[in-house]
Amino acid sequence: MLTVDSIDCSYGPVQALMGLSLEATDGAFIAILGANGAGKSTTLKAIAGLVRPTRGRVLFRGRNLARLGPERRLSLGIALCPEGRRVFPDFTVAENLRVGGHRLNRRVLGDRVDQTLQLFPALKDRMGQSAGSLSGGEQQMLAIARALMTEPSLLLLDEPSLGLAPMITRQVFDAVDGIRKQGTTVVLVEQNRLALRYADYAYVLGNGRLRLEGPAGEVQDDERLRSAYLG
Amino acid sequence: MSPASRTVPGGRAAARIAQWAMVGAVVVIGVLFPQVYGQDFYAVTIATECIVYALITISLNLLVGYGGQISLGQAGLVAIGGYAGAYILEKVPSLPFPVELAFAAVLTTIAGLILGLPTGRLRGHYLAVVTLGLGVAIPQIALNLTSITNGRTGLIVNPASIGSLALASPVAIYYMCFVVTCLSVIAIHSLLKTRTGRAFMAVRDSEQAAAAMGINVQRTKITLFAVSAFFAGIGGDLFGHLQNLVAPGAFPFSLSLFFLAAVIVGGSASLPGSVIGAILLVLADTQTTSLPGFEPVVVGGVVVLVLLIIPGGLAAVPATLMRLRSRQGRRRARTGSLASGAGD
Asked: Which residue has the higher pLDDT, A55 or B296?
């Protein structure tokens, strides 16, 4: 479904990714792990179209995405839930979801909000509340719900556990697992190794390069996982 | 960003009622003002100035408060609107007022579009400098483009007319400005609730997140500049009618700063805040006529004073009061239950 083929990305003189390749089959749950600055977020941004690779290709359903901006990729079914939640604090929960459906037809927008909230009952009671007043876990759920508004077939999640208590992290991962079970392919970027319990395949990055890959269970026990974190 | 919008859920209904009561009061006062003070042309003119400045302040607040951009050249856009209206009226004196207004608004919108183009690459200080450049350049262009603008002398603004009705008296100009401003505020308020309005604020809060939602950040910013310019152009046309004259000297850089100060004093991303901020600064400015040369000191003093007391601007007053009251209420409830000995 998704093929990232040896991409390089750089921010000015700083090269963030070097020859990274990865693959996600339809319905897979992929985890990308690594320390701070390993290039995890950049990978997701390159897939979503927020960053342009200087080399290599990103293919989605066999189609080269090189010339497509983030809006077009969203229409194709690639949705990104950005790092640090980034809900719009002054908007209500409902308005945040409506922004998520920015590219949807006006007539289906209301229905889509209702459908999405079915997956997140906790948010339903807080429809009229401003997103800034939600707890961290609720904001993360909202950010995920917002990304689901366009019914993506590929959901890119950038460190949803950031700043959350372990129990809340588990709830968020459970929710993501539920989304995956409904058929959405998930690519999850994480520092938290708990992600490996949910994912079926994992890639470990270090300093912009692929350090290790394999079925999540094997990666979990691999010594090189530790060394990737410790540099 | 603005504490005003982060209301406690219980206070929501009350806040809504208070909002509508305030809108009603403003409209009633606005309609009745000339009925009471109609003989006092000075008072009516000052009131008209408040109304026009409020509209221009709101146009800038769209850009600054709702869009997260910066402009130090709003007076330049106002000048374009003013000159456009004056010019077309000079050529076609019988032109109906709505057509004249639309002409001024459209021309200014085009200027705003052009101003919005570099926002993809420019932000923060750099954008401030570009808009500053526009604000300073427009009066200079007006000064030198004598064939259209009549140079330093400027253009006399003919009275607006609708059919055979000429809107020449101060009271007629007052009502004209009042109606146009009310309609503009309704339009802006509605716009902010649409997809486009939400996109403005989404881009303000996080360009990355907005882009991830499929919002075209660059197009949204350009639209924002165009919309802001549209209403600045309307304000500029009204400004011309209010002054009876548009001349290069009427749009100094300090006027741009005045509008920015009104936005900040009123509170960013608040329409009522902009209205109150503009009125407060216009009134403060009128008090300075006895202190020639000290106008900026007085206006600047008001800005500093308000921001020292209420950092969020005047729009943050209700939320601040409400928070104080709920905190007080909670404290009273706690001490009350202790006093009655009702523990757990």
From this structure: A55
**Average per-residue pLDDT for chain B:** 89
Q: pTM above the 0.90 mark?
A: no
The yes-or-no verdict on residue B340 having pLDDT over 70 is no
Query: Which residues of chain B are within 8 Å of residue A74 when distances are taken between CB atoms?
Result: 212-214
> Which tops the pLDDT comparison, B14 or B88?
B88
* pLDDT per residue as tens digits for the range B213-251: 999 999 999 999 999 999 999 999 999 999 999 999 999
Distance between B47 CA and the closest CA of chain A, angstroms: 33
In angstroms, the first-to-last Cα distance of chain A is: 31
**Residue B107, both tokens:** 């021309």
**Range 263-292 of B in CB contact (< 8 A) with A:** 269
Instruction: Test A98 with B195 for CB contact under 8 angstroms.
Output: yes
Q: Is CATH 3.20.20.30 the classification given to domain A2-230?
A: no
Q: In order of start, what are the domains of chain B with their CATH numbers?
A: 22-338 (1.10.3470)
- pLDDT per residue over B269-279, tens digit each? 999 999 999 99
* ipTM value for the complex: 0.88
